[in-house]
């Protein structure tokens, strides 16, 4: 979107792109007036269309600028309606922190000791309490957003997705779920109001990652992590973790917010009490120099969009920007921060994007429990229709050759919509009635999901087709079904597209698709009805 050398409002010259993600870009920059190095977070121009989001963001930027705490990166300035070429955007000017992400510390060490972990917890909790006292909930506490200075002090960065604590949810008006799945509290994943307890949970999840070397929940599919978070059992720390430290983490990560530490200050006090009881000095040790080239000093704001970090966001359109790897997880994954669902059930025009985590994840988890991955068998007990596979008697049988060659099957007639050729013979009976673009947080097109209808037998077909440049490693999913409930997903098995047919003759169907990559997932779930 921008390039080095660009000067914003005649004062802030961008020098180096540090990170990019679901909400914008973070740049290292020079303040030409005060001759100091700063960090500039540029919001995506697409977010400017969400007037409610921008109004809140501007108001809360003023609140965050008033925060004064050594453990919180300072906000220096806020720019409105900057214009560069065709783009118009807002931006934040922040303190540039010379530090290393905690995620890098974990990556090098594998796991951190209980005393070092609890020292981190105490410092971060102190900073969070200052924010909570000012009415601000961070909402994206994770290792990548905690910077370790050379002297061992911890600084919390990226309050860019923060919100006032006055009963807000985890969703913007455009359907952006804010936060990172591996460290997201259950109520946040379900788009319930976020409170200070949301940050307490996330900090508990960070402590778990420090002690275990992996996030609390991992999975083998993009939404499996959120499924475990909402419906799975509490994670268990390794047996070598001291019981008193494990008990502290368990309380912080209680799924019921009322069972967590009442405040971040009490969490900090409890962490220090455990360290004191063990008679071991508490301050975190300075991060040792890396064996290879030292990482780029981290900007004061990093929006982590990588929930495939071991710690995989939400994306979904969530996504945050990350400038360093998260500690490795048991299985690499990504998570979406972006979800869509209907506002009504009768007209496509009446739909709006909103969270469906609470409604859909229960089904996804059930599917994962039965199949061992985010796929379920169809009503006949067969594998879901994928490229070249048949979903019962009406699956895309004509695609078997493409399954082995990787090439999309040809349409049976010149008048047939290309996606119809993927729905099985006779392809000419299907007509595209809806389509949805699946993109990165920056708006780059990754795939398109089509909904097709057959007037011949009133059946429906859904197809997700990846863009040629997206790559085969990019996983695509699709579903279409007559009933609301467990989503029976098909995946592309590394092919260019995936198709699924629902033979039920119904007026309305539920359909959706998703795409994932290293830094984001785009996902939607909607209802479509015949007029």
Automatic annotation (TrEMBL):
Top-tier EC class: transferase
Query: Which residue ranges does the record annotate as region Disordered?
Result: 308-351, 383-420
Segments traversing the membrane: 356-376
Provide the Protein kinase domain boundaries: 12-275
**SMART domains to which the protein is assigned, alphabetical:** S_TKc (SM00220)
Spell out the Pfam families in the cross-references: Pkinase (PF00069)
Which reactions fall under this protein's catalytic activity? L-seryl-[protein] + ATP = O-phospho-L-seryl-[protein] + ADP + H(+); L-threonyl-[protein] + ATP = O-phospho-L-threonyl-[protein] + ADP + H(+)
**Amino acid composition bias (Low complexity), ranges on this chain:** 388-414
Q: Please provide the record's keywords in A-Z order.
A: ATP-binding, Kinase, Membrane, Nucleotide-binding, Serine/threonine-protein kinase, Transferase, Transmembrane, Transmembrane helix
Q: What is its EC number?
A: 2.7.11.1
GO BP terms: namely: negative regulation of fatty acid biosynthetic process
Q: What's a single GO MF annotation on this record?
A: protein serine/threonine kinase activity
What name does the UniProt record give this protein? non-specific serine/threonine protein kinase
Species name for this entry?
Answer: Actinoplanes octamycinicus
